[in-house]
Amino acid sequence: MTAPQEQATLAAAGAKTAARTLQNFIGGRWVDSAATEFGEVRNPVNDQLLARVPYGGRHDVDAAVAAATKAFPAWRATPPVNRVRPLFVLRELFEKYFEDIARITTLEHGKTLDESRSSVRRAIDNIEVACAIPTTMQGRSLEDIATGIDCYTYRQPLGVFAAITPFNFPAMVPMWFLPHAIACGNTFIVKPSERVPLSQVRIFELLQEAGFPEGVVNMVNGAKDAVNAILDHPGIAGVSFVGSSPVAHHVYKRSAESGKRVQALGGAKNFVLVMPDADMARAAQVSTESCFGCAGERCLANSVVLGVGAAYDDISKRLVDEAKKIKVGDGLEPGVTMGPVISKAHREKILAYIEKGIAEGATLALDGRAYRDPKHPDGYFLGPTVFTNVKPDMVIAREEIFGPVLCVMKAGTFDEAVEIVKRHDLGNASSIFTSSGKAAREYRWQVEPSMLGVNIGVAAPMAFFPFGGAKGSFYGDIKAHGTDAVDFYTDKKVTIARWF
Ligand code: NAD
What we know:
The protein is of the alpha/beta class. It has helices spanning 3-12, 58-77, 80-83, 85-96, 98-109, 113-130, 133-136, 178-183, 198-210, 224-232, 245-257, 280-292, 311-324, 344-360, 395-398, 414-423, 437-446, 482-489, and strands at residues 24-26, 29-31, 38-42, 49-54, 141-146, 149-157, 160-164, 187-191, 217-219, 238-242, 261-265, 270-274, 302-308, 363-366, 385-390, 405-411, 426-427, 429-433, 451-454, 470-471, 474-475, 490-498.
């Protein structure tokens, strides 16, 4: 696609990017940032400039917090049944502009249109769950905790919350948080990833159209400075973060220092165990989709396959065969099953990991380094890459690569495989492929990752189940989504009452 064609696509999708420099959404209005530094949003397929994004800081965050703080008392006093009405409208607007949001996601991120569509669907799921707040926000009560004394719990909103989100699911991840938080009566600020802010721009246009009162929802563009201004701001009650583990840890510590609630979802290195009694064809196909979907830029990607005992040779060969079937290209083109990675710099980082794997002695069974798309010579493409004979202590097995690189490892026994998973610092998700209910149960009992698949490649909890990992993949106590979101975004006020 040429640059004018891209702008036309964005314009057709309703995105106001003609001026090319994005604005913030504060207090119900689109406003210029006070930023003096700007970043670029580029289409990973062809390196074309899509927009300029301001790197806002304290000034922009102060303005957003002021607007959200001003809006809070009236929004809190709005009955829950009325608070969810604009969310029902938002849901319909998401349906109406479903394809537009998906196309913008593909343009700015590079994933295939089907992958973008799935992510928009999951955003809608979260809005739907938040619409149930008049039920899910109910407290509990007990009459006569002592003679004539009743006790009841009400859930109350806390004020202004913020979400800081990553590049890999631009439309979806902010919607893991915003609908739940505002349905609970809080007001909200989104700081989208500076690499992919365009789908949030479009979504905030829809939020504006949905009729939320001014200041209930706000968006500030920026990078590190905007994040730190949010973490330090005394007017913000809590922060929801999704991103890499080092930044998640930083967000957790710094938010807690200023007395905030915080949930920080971090990085991942997800293992899949393939037992000798597994359906090998299915395990290979599903694991390949899991690892290479979204070009491996997915926190639920199973990026390490552990072949247990006799399963190793069979699954290694099948995985390479499956990976060869992947069609790399422009995610907007039909038939393409894997798009480019997010940036030139990220491509270089992944290439360095591949070099490292070779130097460490792993076998490069499928080499995607040389892949070039003849139609898009400037795109940030990589072909699917598979390493076999990977050992647990190699860098490619320990660190999150976040690209289309699959590591295949051998474990002599089930217990050995479990030990490898338990020894890893991260614990977001994991899967087991087996026909033994006992093995599956034992696996679930023993390992820490909190999102587990049994004969499932991407163990993605629906919007009404908790979402979040363990160990270095999650800092905090209360997870995202569903009733956990209600716990995170409300305080439980217990009242003990006696009337004379
Ligand atoms: P990232 O950590 O680089 O950025 C995430 C957010 O933090 C962005 O909004 C960015 O502006 C901000 N940020 C980046 N560096 C910062 C710094 N030094 N100080 C303050 N703020 C900073 O993550 P990313 O590359 O955008 O996203 C990929 C990562 O997100 C992967 O590690 C992936 O596993 C993780 N992720 C996790 C989940 C989950 O559910 N656990 C979901 C999606 C993505």
